[in-house]
Amino acid sequence: MDFVVESGETILAVEVKSGRKKLTVPGMEAFSKEFPVKKKLLTLSGKIPLEEFLSSPVQQWLE
After folding, report:
1. Residue 63: what pLDDT?
2. How far apart are CA 22 and CA 6, in angstroms?
3. 33 compared with 21, residue with greater pLDDT
4. Res 33: pLDDT
5. Which domain holds residue 15?
6. How far is 42 from 29, CA to CA, in rounded Å?
7. What mean pLDDT do residues 26-49 have?
8. Cα R_g (the chain), whole angstroms
9. Alpha-carbon distance 19 to 9, whole Å?
10. Exposed e or buried b for every residue in 11-30, given b needs 16+ CB within 10 A?
11. Which residues partner with 16 through β-bridges?
């Protein structure tokens, strides 16, 4: 897990991966079992570019 954003009772989990091949995210899955994650994001080539995630308002990702 690279980023955790909490707003009120809403939790957003973010995993940042480099590379293009299919990846597993065991850290995100383990975190989600322990906490009520509303949304999970994976920043990866072809998914959500890291630059887009970091330059966007956090509220955008919580919706």
Report:
1. 75
2. 27
3. 33
4. 92
5. 3-62
6. 12
7. 82
8. 12
9. 32
10. bbbbbebeeeeeeebeebee
11. 43
**Cα separation of 51 and 53, whole Å?**
5
Secondary structure (H, E, C), 1-63: CCEEEEECCEEEEEEECCCCCCCCCHHHHHHHHHCCEEEEEEECCCCECHHHHHHCCHHHHHC
Query: Rounded to the nearest 5 degrees, what angle is found at the Cα of 5, between the Cα atoms of 36 and 28?
Result: 55
19: confidence class by pLDDT, cuts 50, 70, 90: low
Angle at 4 between CA 29 and CA 24, to 5 degrees: 30
* Tokens found for residue 15: 């995993």
Query: In the chain, how many domains are there?
Result: 1
* Residues counted in the chain: 63
Q: Tell me, what's the pLDDT at 20?
A: 63
What SS3 state is found at 42? strand
